[in-house]
Specification:
By secondary structure, the protein is of the alpha/beta class. The chain is globular. It binds ligand C2E and magnesium ion (2 copies). One magnesium ion binds near residues 335, 394, 426 and 456.
C-alpha cells in the first residue's frame, strides 16, 4: 500500500510522461502528464499493449525494434511517433525498460516519454543532437535515419517513397550581400514554409547550409510532382526579413524508391545529383534522378495544361455506345463516352487522360460539359420523333463528392429540358465507399428527381454487397473484365452468373459491358442479362452514326 502510494507520488512529480505495463506488457498505469500530452486516460488504455500507442509511421516498432532491444539489453531508447486521442501524432523520445522480479522474469515494463519537439519548453537545441539549432528541423544524420525507417515501412507496405533535396538558388549572394543575420532568418522562414508543404508524417530536414531534404510516402510519382511544385510555388513568394523583401528560388532533385535505389544513402545521393542537375539547368525547377521520370512529369504537366485549354477550344466531343436488349438485340440505351482530339489533331484515349483529369480535378468541369452536351443531344433525338433511348453518363467521384453536385445536375436538367426517365448516371463502385451518409443523401435526391442510377464496373471494387440494399440504385453494370473471361475461366463465368442472379433478386436491371463475340452474347442472353453493351454489337459511335440506328428503329446491322 505504502509502496503504491510512493509510486503514485513519484509518477505525479516527474516531469516525464510515463506508462507502466504488467509482465505481459499490458498497460496498468499512466501518469497525468501522459494523459495531458496524449489525451488518453487509463480507461482508454488499460489492458492494451503499448503497441496501441504507435502511430502509423512506426506501427510495428515494438515488434521490429523495441522487443529485440529488450531481449538483448533490457531497454530501448529512441524516437517514437505516438498516437494521440485526437488522431494527431507527437514525436517523443521513448525509453522503454524491462523490470525483472527476483527470479529474473519480467514483472513490469516502464515507458518514459520525453517531448522532443523544438517548440516544447524542454527543448534545448544543443541537447538535441541531430537537430539543426537554427531551424529546429532534423539535421542530416537524423534525416538519414528517418529515410531508413521510412524505407522499411515502404518496403513492407509495398509503397513508394520520394526523397527531395532542395537547394536554395544563389543563397550565398544573400548571405554575403545582406549579412548573415538576414541569411539565418531566411533559412528559418524557408524551414517554416517547407514544413507546411508536407504531411505531418513526412520528414522535413535541414541537411546542409542552404539545403533541405524531404522524405515523402507516396502512392504514385504524381504525388512527388505535386509536392515539388508546391515547394517551388511557396518558396517563390517574397520573404519579408527585417523589413526587407528577399526573393529566392530553389532547385529540387527527386529520387524515388524503389526505382532509383534500394538503400537510404543511394536515394539521398541520387536526389543530390538530380538537384545539381536542376541547378545547372538554370535553377527554379525540379528534376528527377531518372530521366524518363522527367519526361513523364513533363508530359503530365503539359497534358494538364492542354486539357484545360481543350475545354475552351471545344476539343472534346462525345461518342455514343449502344446497349441492346438481350431478348431482341434492339437498342434500348446508350452510354456517352468522352473523346479528345487535341489541337495537333492527335487522338488521346480516355484511358490516358481521364485518370489525370481525375487527379488534378479537371474531371469536374469536363464531366459537367459531358453531362450538358449528352443531355442536349438526347433531348434533340427525343424531340425528333425517332426511337427513344436512355442516355447513360459517367459521373466521377470528384463530381459526386462536391457539395454543388445536385445543383449542377438540376441546372443541366433545366437548361436542356431532358425528361429524367431518359437519363441515367453511371457511378463506379469505389465511389460508394467514402462519405456514405452524404452520398446516400445525394443519390436519394437524384432518384427522387426520376433519374436512374447505375453502378459501373461492378465486381471490380471492394465489393460489399451490403451497400446494394442501402444505396438507391436501379442498375448494375458487370465489368467488362468478367465478360471477357466468360469462355476461358469457369470462375469468372460463375461470378457473371451470380451478379445476374443477384440483380434479379434485388429487382435491379443488369447490363453487361464488353461483349465482344457471339459466345459472350449467348452466355449473357442465356443467363437472363437484361442489356448488353460491347464491340460485338457496336463500338462507340459518332452522334450521326448513332442517329442512323435510331432512324432504323434500333436495329444494328451485324453483318
Ligand atoms: P466505362 O464507363 O466502363 O466505359 C466503357 C468502356 O468500355 C469504354 O471505353 C468503351 O469503349 C469500352 N468498351 C465497350 N465495349 C467494349 C468491348 O466490347 N471490348 C472492350 N475491350 N472495351 C469495350 P472508353 O470509351 O475508352 O472509356 C474508358 C473509361 O473512361 C470509361 O469506362 C469511363 O470510366 C471513363 N470515361 C469515359 N468517358 C467519361 C466521361 O464522360 N466521364 C467520366 N467521368 N469518365 C469517362
Ligand atoms: Mg461507364
Ligand atoms: Mg464500365
Amino acid at each position: 500500500m505504502a509502496q503504491s502510494k510512493i509510486l503514485e507520488a513519484l509518477l505525479e512529480t516527474t516531469s516525464d510522461a510515463v506508462i507502466i505495463t504488467d509482465g505481459k506488457n499490458r498497460i496498468v498505469q499512466i501518469n497525468s502528464f501522459f494523459e495531458e500530452i496524449t489525451g488518453f486516460n487509463l480507461g482508454d488504455l488499460s489492458g492494451k499493449h503499448p503497441q496501441f500507442l504507435a502511430a502509423e509511421r512506426n506501427e510495428s516498432i515494438f515488434k521490429t525494434t523495441i522487443e529485440r532491444s529488450l531481449i538483448s539489453k533490457g531497454y530501448w531508447t529512441g524516437e517514437f511517433w505516438c498516437r494521440k486521442r485526437d488522431q494527431e501524432t507527437a514525436l517523443l523520445t521513448l525509453t522503454f525498460t524491462e523490470i525483472k522480479d527476483k527470479n529474473g522474469n519480467a514483472s513490469n515494463y516502464l515507458g518514459v516519454f520525453k517531448q522532443t519537439e523544438h517548440n516544447d519548453a524542454n527543448f534545448h537545441p544543443d541537447q538535441a543532437h541531430n537537430r539543426d539549432a537554427l531551424t529546429g528541423l532534423p539535421g542530416s544524420e537524423l534525416f538519414n535515419d528517418r529515410v531508413e525507417q521510412s524505407l522499411i515501412l515502404a518496403n513492407r507496405a509495398e509503397k513508394s517513397l520520394a526523397i527531395l533535396r532542395i537547394g536554395l538558388d544563389s543563397f550565398s549572394l544573400i548571405n554575403d550581400g545582406l549579412t548573415h543575420e538576414v541569411g539565418d532568418k531566411l533559412l528559418q522562414e524557408v524551414a517554416k514554409r517547407l514544413s507546411k508543404c508536407v504531411r505531418q508524417s513526412d520528414t522535413t530536414a535541414r541537411i546542409g547550409g542552404d539545403q533541405f531534404g524531404l522524405s515523402l510516402a507516396i502512392t504514385s510519382i504524381d504525388d512527388s510532382v505535386l509536392v515539388a511544385e508546391k515547394v517551388l510555388r511557396t518558396l517563390a513568394a517574397p520573404f519579408a526579413i527585417n523589413d526587407q523583401e528577399v526573393v529566392i528560388g530553389a532547385s529540387i532533385g527527386i529520387s524515388l524508391f524503389p526505382n532509383d535505389g534500394e538503400t537510404g544513402p543511394h536515394l539521398v545521393e541520387h536526389a543530390h545529383s538530380a538537384m545539381r542537375y536542376a541547378k545547372k539547368s538554370g535553377g527554379a525547377q525540379y528534376q528527377f534522378f531518372a530521366n524518363d521520370m522527367n519526361d513523364k512529369a513533363k508530359t503530365r504537366i503539359s497534358m494538364e495544361a492542354a486539357m484545360r485549354r481543350a475545354l475552351d477550344n471545344g476539343e472534346y466531343h462525345l461518342n455514343y455506345q449502344p446497349k441492346v436488349a438481350s431478348e431482341d438485340f434492339k437498342v434500348k440505351g446508350m452510354e456517352a463516352l468522352v473523346r479528345w482530339t487535341n489541337s495537333d489533331g492527335d487522338f488521346i484515349s480516355p484511358g490516358e487522360f481521364i485518370p489525370i483529369a481525375e487527379e488534378c480535378g479537371l474531371i469536374v468541369p469536363i464531366g459537367y460539359w459531358v453531362l450538358e452536351e449528352a443531355c442536349r443531344q438526347n433531348k434533340e433525338w427525343l424531340d425528333k420523333g425517332l426511337l427513344k433511348t436512355r442516355l447513360a453518363v459517367n459521373v466521377s467521384g470528384r463530381q459526386l463528392m462536391r457539395d454543388d453536385f445536385i445543383k449542377q445536375v438540376e441546372r443541366v436538367m433545366v437548361e436542356t429540358s431532358i425528361p429524367p426517365e431518359w437519363l441515367e448516371l453511371e457511378i463506379t463502385e469505389s465511389m460508394l465507399m467514402g462519405d456514405t451518409e452524404k452520398t446516400i443523401e445525394k443519390l436519394d435526391t437524384i432518384r427522387s428527381m426520376g433519374i436512374s442510377l447505375a453502378i459501373d464496373d461492378f465486381g471490380t471494387g471492394y465489393s460489399s454487397l451490403s451497400y446494394l440494399s442501402r444505396f438507391p440504385i436501379t442498375t448494375l453494370k458487370i465489368d467488362r473484365a468478367f465478360v471477357n473471361d466468360i469462355e476461358s475461366n469457369a470462375d469468372t463465368a460463375e461470378i457473371a452468373r451470380a451478379i445476374i442472379g443477384l440483380s434479379r433478386g434485388l429487382d435491379l436491371e443488369v447490363v453487361a459491358e464488353g461483349a465482344e463475340n457471339a459466345a459472350h452474347v449467348a452466355f449473357l442472353k442465356d443467363q437472363g442479362c437484361d442489356l448488353i453493351q460491347g464491340f460485338y454489337f457496336s463500338r462507340p459511335l459518332s452522334s450521326e452514326k448513332y442517329e442512323d440506328i435510331l432512324k432504323s428503329g434500333g436495329v444494328i446491322d451485324l453483318t
